[in-house]
Amino acid sequence: MSWQLLVGSSVFLFSVNGLLHRVLMKADKSDPYAQTVVFTGLVGMFAFVILLLRGGFQSTITLNQLPIFGLITGLTAVAGVFTFKGFKLIEASEHTILLTTSRIWSVIGAIVILGEALSPPKLIGAGMIIGGVMITEWRVKVFVFNRGALYVLAAAACYAIAEIYSFYILRDFDSTTFLVYAALFIVAVMLLIRPSTIRKFSFYGKPKKLANILVVSMNDTVANLFVFGAYQVGRNALQIGPLLATQTIVTVLLAFLILRETDNASQKVLGAIAAVTGSVLIL
Fold it and tell me: Which of 28, 261, 262, 75 is nearest to 185 (CA)?
């Protein structure tokens, strides 16, 4: 499978997940920490099943890689909590546009950490992504960056840096094995720091909520493996990262159609178009 098709498939799965996460986190008794732990744990379990079907672990963590795994764990855990806090406070369509700013950090990381080349169109594209965010957040002649928006912007930065270091590890590491290790470390750290999170797991006891979290976890497992596989095929983080931003338009459209998130619709559409146009220029 080509890296373009892998990325395209992951975009669709991530877009569907954005809506499903929003549905879960809108509930009064939902908890961002529990969502991070349960979601990440299930992703690790699905990846582990895939590993077993393939014959077991394919790679081992070296001493040199251990600090990088620690950094990825910390960044992803923080990003997960901030992401789900954001889903509680803002709409799915706005959330996904703000999360697109992670592509700016991805470009910077690909240049600084992975040594990939920069060009003027990439700088223009980064500016258009920022412009898309500004259009989305404009309210009555002021920018309204509420708490939810700030959570998502912080999550975007954390995700992007974690993604770049993940690509660095994946230059010579099996992607499914990597996903299992990463999920295990994140869950362990979260429960060690906040053991009271376990009491919130009862939220997923109802069939609809359980079905929701199982679907998003399975989708995320496959989508992440597609992204990692795309990088291992193409070795082009500068292209893969921005292409993932196209999920912005898909999510905004799905939010309009399914969740009826029609407030400030024209701004969201213009913001999404600007953000995705910028992402294309970054290619």
Answer: 75
Question: Hey, is 266 helix, strand or coil?
Answer: helix
CA–CA distances in Å: residue 259 to residues 40, 185, 216: 25, 34, 17
| Contacts of residue 80, Cβ cutoff 8 Å, sequence gap at least 6 | 32, 35, 36, 39, 40, 155, 186
Note if the pTM is more than 0.70.
yes
Q: Which has the closest alpha carbon to 188: 280, 53, 76, 86?
A: 76
Taking each helix axis from N to C terminus, what angle separates 120-137 and 265-282, rounded to the nearest 10 degrees?
Answer: 170
Mean pLDDT of the chain: 84
State whether residue 142 is helix, strand or coil: strand
Please determine, for residue 27, whether its predicted confidence score (pLDDT) is greater than 90: no
Taking the domains of the chain in order of start, what are their residue ranges? 3-282
